[in-house]
Amino acid sequence: MSLKNEKQTSEVTSVTDIESASVRNKVFGYEDRLASTLNARHIGMISVVGVFGTGLFLSSGGSLATAGPVGILLCYFFVGLVVLASQMCAAETACLMPVTFATIKQSNHFISESYGFALGWTNMYASIIPSELSAVAVIMTYWSSLNPAVWIAVFGAVVIATNCYKIRWYGEIEFFFGCLKIMLVFGLILTGLIIDLGGVPGQERLGFRYWKDGAFNWLYFDSSTGRFIAFWKTMVSTVYSYGGVQGIAMLAGEVEYPRRAIHRAAKRVFARCFLMYMCTVFVLTLVVSSKDPIIASPTGNAAGSPFVVAMRRAGIRVLPHIINGVVLTSALSATNLGVLQSSRALFALASMGQAPKFFLKTNKFGMPYYALCVPVIFIPLAFMSASHAASTVFSWFQSITASNLLVNWITISIIHIRMSKAMKVQGYTREDLPYTFPGTPYASWFSLFFSALLLITGGFTNFIHGHFYFPSFFSAYFIIPLCLLLGLFWGIVKKSFLRKPEDVDLKSLFDDVKERPEPEYPKLRGWRWLTLIWA
Q: Whole-prediction pTM value?
């Protein structure tokens, strides 16, 4: 080849590389500053860690006492369907646009800048509050009578240290915690069945005895109306239990081969969590009465856990300590996740020009250290529990978190609807997407309707005469005016409230899919089928 031809080829290649880089920078700008060292195993288990937390091990007792055995099963099943619909939409969109804190950047890309701004800062508001660190102080009272502030300080330092190192290190820690939780859940299911079937020496067979106390409990009124109130109140609180499932797309920018990893994790994480949740709650209804006074007034530590109540009644002494230990890891994992969410939300906002640019700075490990400082500053809020009833603080924070979860589920549905509309207007089909899930065009509307309904009715008990409680009302509804005011503010500043379908930049996304193909996972054979449990 002549020198002239080589020069021309070099120039063409250079232009192509520049165009390719500009496509990535347009949508995926600043993502390369983060370390892409996680894989499907990590993000899958991070989601599991978020799901199997204090909501299952502690709060399920209160849900059982409120709704009754059949009521709680129906609540977990129905909310699980809403989560499934939301999960499929989130995964399908994230496979096309895998970015850090995908929901924030996707809402900016598919809906409007004002929506992305509002969602980003409301997520900051919800995740910087150290709700689970307050729970740590309560959990430790099972073993120690030390002032809760001591444990908040100790474990707060542990959380900070965990988040300051490589994201891979964080992923491995959460993977270990996730394995512990899966083993505990399997152990609880097996132990519960043994207790129920009379396998414990000196204990008679229970069967469905506790279902005879009443399939549904009532609240405020001993009537069908009271039973519906109890059922719907439990439905709203069940949202908190499924909170971690959406974690599969949050770290998309820090995953090697993010599209295939998200696709695999989305399918396996939900199936794993939904089946294990339903089995665990079903067994719980068999071994604990919904009329039990202990679960009706939870203490916040293992002493009030419905699983511990069942084991104590059966004469099993060791497992309560094991449960409290794993519940402790659950609270620590959730605190870790909150710090991570806050820092990545700030990073995403800064990458869109909606937060100061210095939040984009990373250290040699690919960690956005300035963004990390913000949630760390708010960790001392957890010391509130040292001077107040810790269970009250925990309930307050839990309600705030649940309402924010519903806002995120609503947003995921709207993003998917807007993406589908833009694809139709611009001539793209579902076959053009890198990965698809069955029924998602309808799932997005299903998830949108019921997520919005749960958000609107989140504090409905406050409207029943004589039962208004301001902290409950505030935590259930404060996020709605906060979102509206933030969105209105940024919309006025930028004079942009809704992006037209034809203006959505789909070309850059589909070009990126073509330019960065990802290898398929090898088929599972032999012992590798066991990896379905954790990977």
A: 0.88
